[in-house]
Amino acid sequence: PGKKVLIVFAHQEPKSFNGSLLKIAVEELTKQGCSVTVSDLYAMEFEPRATRNDIVGGLHNSETFNYGVETWEAYKRGGLSKDLVEEQKKVQEADLLIFQFPLFWFNMPAILKGWMDRVLVQGFAYDLSKAYDGGLLQDKLSLFSFTTGGSQEMYSKEGIGGDIRYVLWPMQHGVMHFCGVKVLEPHICYAPENVSEGKRKEMLTAWTQRLKTLWKEEPIDCSPEWYFK
Prior knowledge:
The chain has 7 helices and 6 strands. The chain is an alpha/beta fold and 229 residues long.
């Protein structure tokens, strides 16, 4: 109780299955006494492109633009654009980050990838000497909750898509663990569009049940073995 949760939601339609998963998370976590903030990226018309508009004021090097260097310098002097400062503040305050989205092409939707690209800048989320277990966002948890188009069989080691964990490597390990954030087991709803109404209800119930004991869960072992063994 009293925990702060940020849910970053990347779906165009609130009445979608992803929208239902979001609604359940907000209701269940609020009921537990958590304070829940939602960044609804499509509704916010969040800008996914990393451009020089992210820097307010003069550039560190006006000759050649280097996004990584410029945002790092801007972060240090408080010169990042307002939308980034707002998202960073939400991340800073959160004990848990939940990412809710449909899987697009074995990856997160562009708008969510853009959120990662722009919000998790050097100096805020990591530093060259402070990454992975030393990342700057330690003592936070993250959870990737997403839907797929393909079935669970397709995303198995023997399936055409390969193990779903291969897909999770760049997201969970390459982004969250890199920034020092601990990672909970992902929550995956396989092919909700291709199953019966009853099965969809079961999926929603399973999410509700999981959220009830979420704070008792141990993070996964953030090592290549978890993904590839």
